[in-house]
Design goal:
Blueprint: H1 7-24, E1 28-34, E2 45-49, H2 50-53, H3 55-71, H4 76-102, H5 104-116, E3 123-127, H6 130-146, H7 148-152, H8 175-186
Antiparallel strand pairs: 1-2, 1-3
């Protein structure tokens, strides 16, 4: 199996990228210089976290993380569904972060109103590097999500009934015995 197709590699890559996106939302995305004429502003600088500037990014990062973890136990058809979910979550991340970059003042309005008590105020807003990083991680997350399908072809299908080296002989005592007994009952044999 090629190194890129290992289940642990693909799942870890998706998890790291989803957590990186989630991590960007805990950082300052927008630096707002408030207008001193606004009530309570006093010419202060307001830092707006990504979770407040683009609330959807946090949720979508968690969806992608859950999808990556689910891919590790999913069957062949479910991996296709999970791939679509991860790619759509990544597209949502990119779109939400790009919206913040396109109009940072609109993204900061809620935080400005909370700080000043005035809705629709004017301010000078500058984006930090974190929304750009969220866009980059979102694009990489989509690519990693697309990797699940071709890599999944190399993964062994596992179920809770798979037991290495079980064969036809009686298994050792424990959970394997229970599984073997249930299998024999399913075939109509009485294991007692």
């Amino acid at each position: 199996m090629p190194a890129w197709a290992r289940k642990s590699t693909v799942v870890l890559l998706i998890a790291v990228l989803a957590l990186a996106v989630f991590g960007t939302t805990t950082q300052t995305w927008l630096s707002v210089s408030l207008d001193p004429a606004q009530a309570g502003a006093g010419g202060d600088v307001l830092d707006v976290q990504g979770s407040k500037a683009a609330t959807a990014v946090t949720a979508l990062a968690l969806v992608a993380l859950a999808g990556g973890l689910a891919a590790s136990i999913a069957g062949r058809i479910a991996r296709w569904v999970i791939t679509v979910i991860i790619v759509l979550a990544a597209a949502g991340i990119v779109a939400a972060a790009a919206t913040v970059l396109a109009d940072p003042l609109a993204a900061a309005q809620g935080s400005i109103a909370a700080a000043t008590g005035v809705s629709g105020g004017q301010a000078q807003v500058e984006a930090t590097a974190f929304p750009f990083l969220a866009v980059a991680c979102g694009i990489l997350l989509a690519l990693a999500g697309l990797l699940v399908v071709p890599a999944g072809r190399h993964w062994k299908a596992r179920t809770k009934y798979d037991v290495a080296g079980r064969g036809t002989a009686a298994a050792t005592a424990g959970p394997v015995d229970e599984i073997d007994s249930w299998d024999r009952l399913s075939r109509g044999d009485d294991p007692t």
